[in-house]
Sequence to fold (178 residues):
Amino acid sequence: MGYPAIEHLNDLSADAFADEVAPLFEGARRFLQRLAAARPFDSDKAFLATAREVARTMPEADQVELLNAHPMLGADPAAVSRASFEEQGYGSPSEEGSGQPILEELAMLNRVYEGRFGFRYVVFVAGRPLSAMGPLIEAAMRNDRAAELGRGLDDVIDIAADRLGRLRGDYLDRDEGS
Fold:
């Protein structure tokens, strides 16, 4: 059996809905509560478009919670969700041999980023190796806070769209409906 259809998700209680879709968004509860209140959704694309709108318009404290729900890039593999483990390429041939130096560099860059912006750096990895993430974080640090908040929230939804596509066995166009 695949991931529950949108019609089934619409029929769940707010708490059950939040629990069911939590893995798509790393369990950010206040965001999930807002998303549950925005039902019903006509389709997966409508669900994701609404998720993007909710993420972009909710109070900043809830936006930061949504970003900070995601694990730090290069975090200890034992401390990340299964989805993040796969997305960040832990154990993939392209990451073999990269090891501790890259994880240490990413941890340092994340600390600097979080100190500058007040929230975690989140990016839709999209199959890129962890070794490619350092330059992305460095480039992001040249943005202003509002731009980074918006970029990070968009990437959270792109990650969720990719995860939903994988769970459904297909890949949604992550740019549609944005």
